[in-house]
Write a structure and sequence with these properties.
Layout: E1 4-8, H1 9-19, E2 25-27, H2 34-43, E3 47-49, H3 53-67, E4 71-75, H4 79-83, H5 85-94, E5 98-104, H6 121-124, E6 130-133, H7 140-152, E7 159-164, H8 165-169, E8 171-175, H9 189-201, E9 205-209, H10 211-215, H11 219-229, E10 233-235, H12 255-261, E11 264-268, E12 285-289, H13 310-318, H14 328-349, H15 358-368, E13 374-378, H16 381-389, E14 398-399, H17 410-420, E15 426-431, H18 432-438, H19 442-447, E16 453-458, H20 463-473, H21 487-493, E17 497-501, H22 507-516, E18 521-526
Parallel strand pairs: 2-3, 2-4, 4-5, 5-7, 6-7, 9-10, 9-11, 11-12, 13-14, 13-15, 15-16, 16-18, 17-18
Antiparallel strand pairs: 1-8
Helix pairs in contact: 1-2, 1-7, 3-5, 3-17, 9-13, 11-13, 14-15, 15-16, 15-22
Domain Thiamine pyrophosphate enzyme TPP-binding: 378-525
Family: Belongs to the TPP enzyme family.
Protein name: Acetolactate synthase
Length: 540
């Protein structure tokens, strides 16, 4: 006879969640979901709470991204769920296997005007892999299994379930959930062979690898394929660091000559979107390698587009036995461009100026960040510099909003990162505009003893809007913030600490104090409002 579990809906939910490797929940307290809290409390299952539901979903997404397993957010009904929609949408664009469990007004009174009564499923269905209402207590384990299987199946993404009040509070005796079984998509071997031959025989090939290479646990296979075929590699998103800085095939600064001169470009595990000029690479033929057929670009005519498990596809590329062109001259030319770009960056990052140039902030950060530090970008203008000047030494250590471009990820991502890595440096890079979205959750970090370093680039403007408006119209509106605002005092008042830096020579000591503090610590850097950086294709 199968093992049985007995209890209220929260007990049944927790048993199913644990079977799929979930080890914590993120939430903002709400009465509709009390039984889930009760189950967690009785089992010693960690609960982390926040001050805005979007931070709960972003924290769950950080866990999902960093650990490549499900992250869980539990949200109360109505505004609890709708406050989490931006987080769900970001997880959808980022292929993050997040599960949101929502409370729901009772079904037996549906339509009578219960507190926070709204049908969530139509709202979240377009931005989830699976969305449903659980209609019976006995269905909870099976529905959670279906939702998490969908979230973990390539192309990965979030799932949503809501549980009516009476379903969650009632008790049942049901079969325990079985072992998870996540299907693996087998690629078409002929398509893979065509892609391998195109790359091997190209005169000037380039690989661009993105977040799905990390999410699909295919970093080692990417490196093997690049080395076997001798192809230069550029990365974005969580693909950054897949080839360590200093690897002879790792490039970051020579993107323009590479994409302008390539005859074949293989884009692996990332969409052909605005970050990659929508897949338009001059005369180059495009290979688009994706983890599921749904991710094949429809606006570009790819030469070939293998779809399936990225480990299998990249391993096959590495084992290609056909004809190969000599790429050494191509690589040598790109290396010269790369070295020239690095020299320019080094000069910018050492700039002595008043006010401080954003590049100098990243020059100082590079001196203190450990190789395994997790860096989190939450902003537009200021984080664009991070994409240019910070180079993760290891894969899976860079978190930014991704192609959806949603601000406010910072504190939630920081919470998920700190829980994932209790002993690593966690550094949030935040624009002063982005600070308005989530900085209150510095209180959540302080209260739950989750220290992180927050570096705010404070130029007193919406940099990516003010300068373009001025260029287009000769004026700007709705683009100014308070200059010199003391965001460090905000974090200090919330239980952390911080300081304001006005001189470039004071940056290094301030960062050292921040990383040694043991509390959420905000370094508020007053940067030059005239020095705005255009949107960077290096962002995830």
């Amino acid at each position: 006879m199968a093992d049985m579990i007995e209890g209220h809906g929260g007990d049944l939910a927790l048993a199913a969640l644990r079977a799929y490797g979930v080890t914590e929940m993120f939430t903002l307290s709400g009465g509709h979901v009390f039984p889930i809290y009760d189950a967690a409390y009785k089992a010693g299952f960690p609960i982390y709470d926040v001050r805005h539901e979007q931070s709960a979903v972003f924290a769950a997404e950080a866990v999902a991204k960093l650990q490549r397993r499900p992250g869980l957010a539990v949200l109360t009904a109505g505004p609890g769920v709708t406050n989490g929609v931006s987080g769900l949408t970001s997880a959808f664009f980022n292929a993050s296997p997040v599960l949101v469990l929502g409370g729901r007004a009772p079904s037996f009174r549906w339509g009578s005007g219960s507190l926070q009564e709204i049908d969530h499923v139509p709202l979240v269905a377009p931005i989830t892999k699976y969305a449903a209402t659980v209609t019976g207590t006995e269905q909870i384990p099976a529905e959670i299994g279906r939702a998490l299987t969908a979230a973990l199946t390539a192309h990965r993404g979030p799932s949503f379930l809501d549980l009516p009040l009476e379903v969650l509070f009632s008790s049942e005796d049901v079969a325990a959930p079985g072992e998870p079984a996540v299907p693996v998509l087998e690629p078409d071997p002929d398509e893979v062979a065509r892609a391998a031959a195109l790359l091997a025989e190209a005169e000037r090939p380039v690989i661009i690898a993105g977040s799905d290479v990390w999410g699909g646990d295919a970093v080692a296979e990417l490196r093997a394929a690049a080395e076997a075929l001798q192809i230069p590699v550029f990365t974005n998103g969580m693909g950054r660091g897949a080839l360590p800085t200093g690897h002879p095939l790792a490039f970051a600064k020579a993107r323009r000559p590479a994409l302008g001169g390539a005859d074949v470009v293989a884009v692996i595990g990332t969409p052909l979107d605005f970050r990659l000029n929508f897949g338009e690479f001059d005369a180059a033929r495009v290979i688009h390698i994706v983890d599921a057929p749904s991710q094949r670009a429809t606006h570009v005519q790819a030469a070939v587009s293998p779809a399936g498990d990225l480990r299998q596809i990249l391993a096959a590329l590495a084992n290609h036995q056909g004809k190969r062109a000599d790429h050494s001259e191509w690589i040598e030319g790109l290396r010269a461009a790369e070295d020239a770009g690095r020299a320019r960056d080094a000069e910018a990052m050492a700039a002595e100026s008043d006010p401080i140039k954003p590049a100098r902030v990243y020059g100082e950060l590079r001196k203190v960040l450990a190789p395994d530090a997790v860096t989190i970008g939450d902003g537009g203008d200021f984080v664009s510099y991070a994409g240019r000047y910070l180079e993760p030494a290891q894969p899976g250590t860079w978190l930014d909003p991704g192609p959806y471009g949603c601000l406010g990820t910072g504190m939630g991502y920081a919470m998920g990162a700190r829980i994932t890595y209790p002993d690593r440096q966690i550094c949030v890079l935040m624009g002063d505009g982005a600070a308005g979205f989530s900085l209150m959750d510095a209180e959540s970090l302080a209260r739950q003893n989750l220290p992180v370093v927050i570096v705010v680039g404070n130029n007193g403007i919406w940099g990516l809007e003010k300068h373009p408006m001025q260029a287009m119209y000769g004026y700007d509106v709705a683009a100014d913030l308070q200059p010199g605002l003391r965001y460090d005092d905000v974090v200090t008042a919330l239980g952390g600490a911080g300081e304001t830096v006005e001189k470039s020579g004071d940056l290094g000591p301030a960062l050292a104090r921040a990383f040694a503090s043991g509390v959420p610590y905000l370094v508020n850097v007053l940067t030059d409002p005239a020095d705005a950086y255009p949107r960077s294709s290096n962002l995830a």
